[in-house]
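Annotated sample (chain length 231).
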Amino acid sequence: MRNTWILATAILLTVAPAAVADSIHLLVNSSVLARFSSPDDNYWGTYSTVEASYMDHPSLGSDVLVIANFSNISVFVPSGNAVTSATINVILPTNPVQGTGVNFALNSFAPPNPGISIAPTFNGTGSTNVFVSLAPSFFFPLPSPLISGNEVSTGDLALDFILDGVILDTVATPGVNWDGYIGGSGQVLIPYSVELDVTYAPVPEPSTFALLGTGILALAVVARRRTIAGA
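Output written by the structure step:
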Protein backbone atom coordinates (compact mmCIF):
# COMPACT_ATOMS: atom_id res chain seq x y z
CA MET A 1 0.00 0.00 0.00
CA ARG A 2 2.80 2.42 0.94
CA ASN A 3 4.52 1.90 -2.41
CA THR A 4 1.25 2.58 -4.16
CA TRP A 5 0.95 5.97 -2.42
CA ILE A 6 4.51 6.86 -3.43
CA LEU A 7 3.71 6.06 -7.05
CA ALA A 8 0.42 7.98 -7.01
CA THR A 9 2.06 11.05 -5.48
CA ALA A 10 4.87 11.04 -8.03
CA ILE A 11 2.49 10.83 -10.98
CA LEU A 12 0.15 13.47 -9.55
CA LEU A 13 2.98 15.96 -9.08
CA THR A 14 4.21 15.24 -12.59
CA VAL A 15 0.93 15.85 -14.41
CA ALA A 16 -0.23 18.70 -12.16
CA PRO A 17 1.39 21.47 -14.26
CA ALA A 18 -0.73 20.48 -17.28
CA ALA A 19 -3.87 20.87 -15.18
CA VAL A 20 -3.16 24.54 -14.51
CA ALA A 21 -2.73 25.57 -18.15
CA ASP A 22 -4.18 29.01 -18.81
CA SER A 23 -4.96 31.36 -21.70
CA ILE A 24 -4.85 35.02 -22.69
CA HIS A 25 -7.46 36.62 -24.96
CA LEU A 26 -6.69 40.05 -26.42
CA LEU A 27 -9.30 41.86 -28.56
CA VAL A 28 -8.43 45.14 -30.32
CA ASN A 29 -11.09 47.15 -32.20
CA SER A 30 -10.15 49.20 -35.25
CA SER A 31 -11.62 50.57 -38.49
CA VAL A 32 -10.69 51.50 -42.04
CA LEU A 33 -12.25 54.10 -44.35
CA ALA A 34 -13.08 52.71 -47.78
CA ARG A 35 -13.71 54.96 -50.81
CA PHE A 36 -14.96 53.55 -54.10
CA SER A 37 -16.65 54.37 -57.40
CA SER A 38 -19.14 52.39 -59.40
CA PRO A 39 -17.95 51.40 -62.85
CA ASP A 40 -19.81 52.94 -65.80
CA ASP A 41 -22.81 50.78 -66.52
CA ASN A 42 -26.28 50.83 -68.01
CA TYR A 43 -28.40 50.89 -64.87
CA TRP A 44 -31.65 50.53 -66.73
CA GLY A 45 -34.98 51.49 -65.29
CA THR A 46 -37.18 54.35 -64.24
CA TYR A 47 -35.60 56.81 -61.82
CA SER A 48 -38.41 58.51 -59.99
CA THR A 49 -38.68 60.25 -56.65
CA VAL A 50 -39.78 56.90 -55.23
CA GLU A 51 -36.60 54.95 -54.55
CA ALA A 52 -38.33 51.59 -54.90
CA SER A 53 -38.92 52.27 -58.62
CA TYR A 54 -35.25 51.65 -59.44
CA MET A 55 -34.88 48.50 -61.52
CA ASP A 56 -31.22 48.39 -60.61
CA HIS A 57 -28.87 50.36 -58.40
CA PRO A 58 -25.30 51.40 -59.17
CA SER A 59 -23.13 48.85 -57.43
CA LEU A 60 -19.60 48.75 -56.11
CA GLY A 61 -18.62 46.50 -58.97
CA SER A 62 -17.10 43.07 -58.54
CA ASP A 63 -14.88 42.36 -55.55
CA VAL A 64 -13.81 45.84 -54.48
CA LEU A 65 -10.67 45.25 -52.43
CA VAL A 66 -9.80 47.36 -49.38
CA ILE A 67 -6.51 46.96 -47.48
CA ALA A 68 -6.52 47.67 -43.74
CA ASN A 69 -3.09 48.14 -42.18
CA PHE A 70 -3.14 46.90 -38.59
CA SER A 71 -0.22 47.70 -36.28
CA ASN A 72 1.43 45.02 -34.17
CA ILE A 73 -0.09 44.00 -30.82
CA SER A 74 1.50 41.57 -28.37
CA VAL A 75 0.98 39.79 -25.06
CA PHE A 76 3.41 38.27 -22.56
CA VAL A 77 2.78 34.96 -20.83
CA PRO A 78 3.83 34.78 -17.14
CA SER A 79 7.40 33.85 -16.39
CA GLY A 80 7.99 30.12 -15.98
CA ASN A 81 5.42 29.24 -18.66
CA ALA A 82 5.65 28.17 -22.28
CA VAL A 83 3.26 28.97 -25.14
CA THR A 84 1.30 25.89 -26.23
CA SER A 85 -0.81 27.50 -28.98
CA ALA A 86 -1.50 30.92 -30.52
CA THR A 87 -3.96 32.09 -33.18
CA ILE A 88 -5.00 35.30 -34.92
CA ASN A 89 -8.62 35.91 -35.85
CA VAL A 90 -10.35 38.83 -37.57
CA ILE A 91 -13.98 39.70 -36.73
CA LEU A 92 -16.02 41.62 -39.33
CA PRO A 93 -19.57 43.02 -39.22
CA THR A 94 -22.21 40.38 -39.91
CA ASN A 95 -24.76 42.95 -41.12
CA PRO A 96 -24.44 45.46 -43.99
CA VAL A 97 -22.41 48.56 -43.12
CA GLN A 98 -23.95 51.87 -44.14
CA GLY A 99 -22.01 54.84 -45.48
CA THR A 100 -22.56 57.79 -47.79
CA GLY A 101 -23.06 57.67 -51.54
CA VAL A 102 -24.10 59.67 -54.60
CA ASN A 103 -25.48 58.78 -58.03
CA PHE A 104 -25.03 60.77 -61.22
CA ALA A 105 -25.79 60.61 -64.94
CA LEU A 106 -22.52 60.57 -66.84
CA ASN A 107 -21.65 62.82 -69.77
CA SER A 108 -22.05 59.90 -72.13
CA PHE A 109 -25.78 59.77 -71.37
CA ALA A 110 -27.77 59.73 -74.61
CA PRO A 111 -29.63 62.88 -75.69
CA PRO A 112 -33.18 63.19 -74.31
CA ASN A 113 -35.51 60.74 -75.98
CA PRO A 114 -38.93 60.55 -74.30
CA GLY A 115 -39.71 57.04 -73.14
CA ILE A 116 -36.24 55.84 -74.07
CA SER A 117 -33.58 57.89 -72.32
CA ILE A 118 -34.05 60.98 -70.19
CA ALA A 119 -31.19 61.62 -67.78
CA PRO A 120 -32.34 61.82 -64.16
CA THR A 121 -30.67 64.09 -61.66
CA PHE A 122 -29.88 63.18 -58.07
CA ASN A 123 -29.68 65.07 -54.79
CA GLY A 124 -26.18 63.87 -53.90
CA THR A 125 -27.19 62.92 -50.36
CA GLY A 126 -27.53 59.18 -50.72
CA SER A 127 -26.11 56.16 -48.93
CA THR A 128 -24.03 53.05 -49.52
CA ASN A 129 -24.79 49.65 -48.06
CA VAL A 130 -21.98 47.10 -48.21
CA PHE A 131 -21.24 43.59 -47.03
CA VAL A 132 -17.68 43.03 -45.84
CA SER A 133 -15.70 39.79 -45.97
CA LEU A 134 -12.09 38.69 -45.82
CA ALA A 135 -10.40 37.86 -49.09
CA PRO A 136 -10.34 34.08 -49.62
CA SER A 137 -7.85 32.42 -47.27
CA PHE A 138 -6.21 30.52 -50.12
CA PHE A 139 -5.25 33.86 -51.67
CA PHE A 140 -4.54 36.03 -48.63
CA PRO A 141 -3.98 33.70 -45.65
CA LEU A 142 -3.74 35.19 -42.18
CA PRO A 143 -0.21 34.82 -40.82
CA SER A 144 0.60 32.83 -37.71
CA PRO A 145 1.43 34.76 -34.53
CA LEU A 146 5.09 35.51 -33.84
CA ILE A 147 6.45 33.79 -30.72
CA SER A 148 9.67 35.01 -29.09
CA GLY A 149 10.23 33.60 -25.62
CA ASN A 150 7.32 34.76 -23.47
CA GLU A 151 6.10 37.32 -26.04
CA VAL A 152 3.42 36.51 -28.61
CA SER A 153 2.60 39.16 -31.23
CA THR A 154 0.57 39.61 -34.42
CA GLY A 155 3.20 41.58 -36.32
CA ASP A 156 2.03 44.32 -38.70
CA LEU A 157 -0.93 42.97 -40.70
CA ALA A 158 -2.18 43.97 -44.14
CA LEU A 159 -5.78 42.73 -44.00
CA ASP A 160 -7.62 42.40 -47.30
CA PHE A 161 -11.37 43.05 -47.19
CA ILE A 162 -13.79 42.47 -50.06
CA LEU A 163 -16.79 44.80 -50.36
CA ASP A 164 -20.03 44.06 -52.15
CA GLY A 165 -23.08 46.31 -52.16
CA VAL A 166 -25.08 49.11 -53.77
CA ILE A 167 -24.97 52.90 -53.94
CA LEU A 168 -28.32 54.60 -53.36
CA ASP A 169 -29.33 58.22 -53.82
CA THR A 170 -32.55 60.21 -53.92
CA VAL A 171 -33.87 61.49 -57.24
CA ALA A 172 -34.16 65.24 -57.79
CA THR A 173 -35.74 65.11 -61.27
CA PRO A 174 -37.16 61.85 -62.69
CA GLY A 175 -35.69 60.14 -65.70
CA VAL A 176 -35.83 56.97 -67.75
CA ASN A 177 -32.69 55.06 -68.65
CA TRP A 178 -32.51 52.45 -71.37
CA ASP A 179 -29.29 53.40 -73.16
CA GLY A 180 -27.30 55.78 -70.94
CA TYR A 181 -24.76 55.45 -68.18
CA ILE A 182 -25.51 56.00 -64.49
CA GLY A 183 -22.54 56.09 -62.13
CA GLY A 184 -22.02 56.30 -58.40
CA SER A 185 -19.40 56.82 -55.72
CA GLY A 186 -19.33 56.54 -51.96
CA GLN A 187 -17.42 55.80 -48.82
CA VAL A 188 -17.97 53.77 -45.69
CA LEU A 189 -16.14 53.31 -42.37
CA ILE A 190 -15.61 49.58 -41.82
CA PRO A 191 -15.26 48.45 -38.21
CA TYR A 192 -13.30 45.29 -37.49
CA SER A 193 -11.57 43.55 -34.59
CA VAL A 194 -8.36 41.54 -34.32
CA GLU A 195 -8.21 38.71 -31.77
CA LEU A 196 -5.04 37.22 -30.38
CA ASP A 197 -5.65 33.99 -28.45
CA VAL A 198 -2.76 32.38 -26.57
CA THR A 199 -2.69 29.31 -24.35
CA TYR A 200 0.25 28.44 -22.13
CA ALA A 201 1.32 25.97 -19.45
CA PRO A 202 4.03 25.85 -16.76
CA VAL A 203 7.42 24.52 -17.78
CA PRO A 204 8.21 21.46 -15.58
CA GLU A 205 11.20 21.92 -13.25
CA PRO A 206 14.09 19.42 -13.52
CA SER A 207 13.13 18.08 -10.10
CA THR A 208 9.75 17.12 -11.53
CA PHE A 209 11.38 14.83 -14.06
CA ALA A 210 13.46 13.32 -11.25
CA LEU A 211 10.29 12.68 -9.26
CA LEU A 212 8.71 11.04 -12.30
CA GLY A 213 11.72 8.78 -12.58
CA THR A 214 11.34 7.87 -8.92
CA GLY A 215 7.69 7.02 -9.51
CA ILE A 216 8.54 4.79 -12.45
CA LEU A 217 11.22 3.07 -10.41
CA ALA A 218 8.73 2.51 -7.56
CA LEU A 219 6.29 1.00 -10.05
CA ALA A 220 8.98 -1.41 -11.26
CA VAL A 221 9.81 -2.43 -7.67
CA VAL A 222 6.16 -3.06 -6.84
CA ALA A 223 5.71 -5.10 -10.00
CA ARG A 224 8.83 -7.18 -9.23
CA ARG A 225 7.75 -7.92 -5.63
CA ARG A 226 4.33 -9.05 -6.81
CA THR A 227 6.01 -11.32 -9.37
CA ILE A 228 8.26 -12.89 -6.70
CA ALA A 229 5.31 -13.26 -4.30
CA GLY A 230 3.30 -14.96 -6.99
CA ALA A 231 6.13 -17.34 -7.66
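Annotation: Residues 140 and 147 are 21 Å apart (CA to CA).
Annotation: The chain has one domain: 20-202.
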